[in-house]
Amino acid sequence: MYNIFCGMLRRCNNKNHNSYDRYGGRGIKCLWKDYADFERDMVENYLLHIEKYGERQTTIDRINNDGNYCKENCKWSTWREQAFNKLSKRAITYNGETRTMASWARKIGIKKTTLWHRLNKKGVSMEEIFNTKVRKLKLGKVKYKNQYKTMTDWSRIFNISLQAMSYRLNVLKWSLDKTFQTKLRK
Q: Within a domain: residue 33?
């Protein structure tokens, strides 16, 4: 528990710490004056959490990711629970149900990248995002510039993944010319 307290202080106060930008650099503070205050506020739930999950699976977690480290905003979590609270995880609510992007993608049967593109496309309703079926790319021979080749062959020639070609043709409704000639952004 002492090491966890010291870790909080380093993330919030040490500008040389590799996580400072995500904590102290964003204005996150540790509001406990010293370890004794922290221990008094958190030890009971800490011991209960360790009993249930073990010491290796017990981490301090801020309930509000933009809030400070304090009794009202901290709880003990497993690593998996804490991962849901990270800035890099995007929580999406649809029809009153909140899930991560990965969880929604699994539930509706599409890839995370497909869901990400749909969510970031302007002017698309939540109904369209969650209810549009993914169309498979036809892998038969396709005529382009008077040549017939499979989509797999065109993919190799233009160095574009089948997934990217499918997205361009089926979702963005691009022409073959635009699909093949537009370079992927890095």
A: yes
